[in-house]
Amino acid sequence: MSAAPKPPRSNPTKALLSAAVVLVGLAMIAVTSLALFTDSAAVPANSFSTGTIDIATSPTTALVTMSAMVPGDQVTAPLTVQNNGTLELRYAMRSTTTEDTLAAQLVLTVKSGVSTCSDAAWAASGTTLYSGILGSQATTAVLGSVADGAQAGDRTLAAAGSEVLCFNVTLPAGASLGSGASTTATFTFQAEQTTNNP
Question: What is the DSSP string of 29-56?
Answer without folding.
Answer: HHHHHH--------------------EE
